[in-house]
Amino acid sequence: MDSLLLPSFPKPSSLTTAPHFSRTKYCAAIYHASSYGPNASWNKRKVQKEHNFLKFRWPSLNHHFKGIERGYTCQKCNTKFVVKATSEPSFESEPQAFDPKSILDSVKNSLDAFYRFSRPHTVIGTALSIISVSLLAVEKISDISPLFFTGVLEAVVAALFMNIYIVGLNQLSDVEIDKINKPYLPLASGEYSFGTGVTIVASFSILSFWLGWIVGSWPLFWALFVSFVLGTAYSINVPVLRWKRFAVLAAMCILAVRAVIVQLAFFLHMQTHVYKRPPVFSRPLIFATAFMSFFSVVIALFKDIPDIEGDKVFGIQSFTVRLGQERVFWICVSLLEIAYGVALMMGAASPCLWSKIVTGVGHAVLASVLWYHAKSVDLKSKASITSFYMFIWKLFYAEYLLIPFVR
């Protein structure tokens, strides 16, 4: 082995290279002296003398040869020397090769984090509600024109920007609570830093107001402004505000935005700004506002049921904390069933046959499905309660599919 390695050794060009060469040579001597030959003990004494001489010249040798009397071998030392002596290129120093898959995975992870940060069930609800209410302003087939789609797009984009501001601010204010209730959210899990969250929230609020101002629709701008004020008051942790701590104020915030502002303001945006017509409060619009008031109260109450643990720890006095999960659960189910009953009567009173059929059958089906799912919920399982909460949002979406048929 030595005969193969020695020709590749570089010549010692300075004092710093000498210790390495001598140590290797000395290691070989120790190994030979301790393992071979009849005069092993004499050889050991000779090597010991040489070691003392080398130790005097290169003190660092003392750390490598403390096991001389125990027959210590220097295979490890030889291995180190060979690795240092070889001149093969080091892969660690080379720049990492371009890997499209890793870049694609990084993009996917970023999009997934933003998707969770934006709370997609609220985004879908906001978009569907605006489209549905905008259809209430349609009086004839010719109203479905590029002007209609432009007006709807302006409203939806501006509202979605404000929606991301509101849900993002709520996460910034609830990082510690979400670590208990919703650890999968980007801020709670650590995927987003607090600074990243602030940047996203501030950017989307500015974009929302900028778009509302550029469009020039006062109903749209006021819808954005009132949503901004109520969303901020609901979440931000400053004196007098953070209304989510108080059950009634929290419910009123959600009801005002989801039931009143979305229905009235976005209808008036289409009616007065897009179609240039005088404001009117039609029968379908009044129904949509009343029905969604019920639904918004249910969402405000039910959203706290799976979050009871974190709310108790941080002193959030929700109805669930005060009344208990089971009681609030059945209050929510009962309110929705009452709302569906009112919708059935509303459909039956419609002068249009097609409206009677669609709204009557549609609400009857939704009421039945709600009752069936409610009886199968395990109130001791957070996963089961959360799943039912998402089901309520699906009923929310379905209602906005029926509202345009109310006449």
From TrEMBL:
Name assigned to this protein: Homogentisate phytyltransferase
Annotated family: Belongs to the UbiA prenyltransferase family.
GO molecular function, one term: prenyltransferase activity
Transmembrane segments: 120-138, 147-172, 192-213, 220-240, 246-268, 280-302, 328-346, 353-374, 386-406
UniProt main location, coarse: plastid
Entry annotated with the keyword Glycosyltransferase: no
Organism, scientific name: Psophocarpus tetragonolobus
InterPro entries linked: AtHST-like, UbiA_prenyltransferase, UbiA_sf
Keywords assigned: Chloroplast, Membrane, Plastid, Transferase, Transit peptide, Transmembrane, Transmembrane helix
Compartment annotation: Plastid, Chloroplast membrane
Record flagged with keyword Disulfide bond: no
GO cellular component terms, semicolon-separated: chloroplast membrane
Protein topology in the membrane: Multi-pass membrane protein
Record PANTHER family: HOMOGENTISATE PHYTYLTRANSFERASE 1, CHLOROPLASTIC (PTHR43009:SF6), HOMOGENTISATE SOLANESYLTRANSFERASE, CHLOROPLASTIC (PTHR43009)
Pfam families: UbiA
